[in-house]
Design a protein that fits this description.
seven-stranded mixed beta sheet; alpha+beta; two-stranded antiparallel ribbon; Heat Shock Protein 90; about 300 residues; elongated; about 40% helix
């Protein structure tokens, strides 16, 4: 695959006298980026596999207990029916856990589609629910209703949200809080009508995703390098997770940043410009650059 560039050469009067054409073979670079993304997906899958194994093991132990009780020939019919019902209920619970994971990893292809980010976040939250319950971590969903859909590759964005969420869980103790938030942000315009953010289209609106935790935050010295490859705060980390997240987000026209929250932990913010019609946006007041401390009336829930 080739990237194609054209560079005009101008004379003293700024007239174009010739054009330099430059072709760059980016096949190897794109292959490396895909390999890094796949590697990070496998690492995230490994972390989830350990969590799911624990969640599935619990109902299996209950089923084994029920079978042990049913093996007793002296169990009366009423108790026997109760044990069968308990075993069936635990089987349904185990199947539900596996179904959630399969649904999460079902591929939707590699093409951009109009995507509801709230749906992706809710799927991630469902996936980590058991682990958070076990560790007494409260998950708050603060999702703005009726956000406009954005054109992204759903599987890629889902991977970013999952990576940020798993990172947050790793830094939290067995008691803490994880906040997953979305809202609509509007940039003010210049007097000339130009937007402050060149990435946005004529609407000047952005869908914002925030992943916030009550951990120890990001060390100040790493704020500028945290998204660089091989930079990590973990002793056993690869330093590729956040670098892959940045690549995925930027490739789809978005931005990603991090800041420490006063009295709390870290907040990672992913922003995508709204493209085209915003008629599906919430009727609540937008979160503007001049009202950074005022959030719209969000639908909040705890899982």
């Amino acid at each position: 695959m080739l990237d194609h560039y054209l560079f005009p050469v101008r004379d003293a009067t700024s007239g174009i006298i010739q054009v330099i054409e430059y072709l760059e073979d980016v096949t190897e670079r794109l292959a490396l980026e895909r390999a890094l993304t796949q590697n990070e997906q496998l690492m995230a899958l490994g972390k989830l596999a350990a969590t799911v194994a624990h969640e599935v093991n619990t109902p299996l132990l209950a089923i084994r207990g029920c079978l042990g009780l049913l093996a007793n020939a002296q169990v009366d019919p009423t108790a026997r029916a109760e044990y069968f019902a308990m075993a069936e209920s635990e089987l349904d619970r185990a199947a539900g856990i596996i179904r959630v994971m399969l649904d999460f990893y079902q591929s939707n292809g590699n093409e951009q589609r109009s995507t509801d980010v709230n749906v992706l976040i809710e799927r991630v939250a469902q996936l980590i629910k058991g682990e958070c319950t076990r560790r007494n971590i409260e998950v708050l969903l603060c999702l703005a209703p009726a956000l406009p859909a954005i054109p992204v590759i759903p599987d890629r964005l889902k991977q970013v949200i999952l990576n940020l969420t798993l990172n947050a869980l790793e830094v939290l103790a067995d008691e803490g809080q994880l906040i997953l938030r979305t809202f609509l942000h509007e940039e003010p315009r210049h007097a000339s009508g130009e937007q402050l953010a060149a990435a946005s289209d004529e609407t000047g609106s952005f869908v914002v995703i925030e992943v916030e935790d009550t951990g120890s935050g990001v060390p100040d010295l790493l704020h500028e390098q945290i998204f660089d490859a091989f930079v990590t705060t973990k002793s056993d980390g690869s330093g590729l997770g956040l670098a892959v997240c940045r690549t995925i987000v930027q490739d789809q026209g978005g931005t990603i940043s991090v800041e420490n929250v006063a009295g709390s932990g870290a907040r990672f913010t992913v922003t995508f410009p709204v493209v085209g019609d915003t008629s599906t946006t919430t009727g609540q007041p937008a979160h503007t650059a001049n009202e950074a401390s005022l959030l719209p009336d969000l639908h909040s829930s705890s899982i």
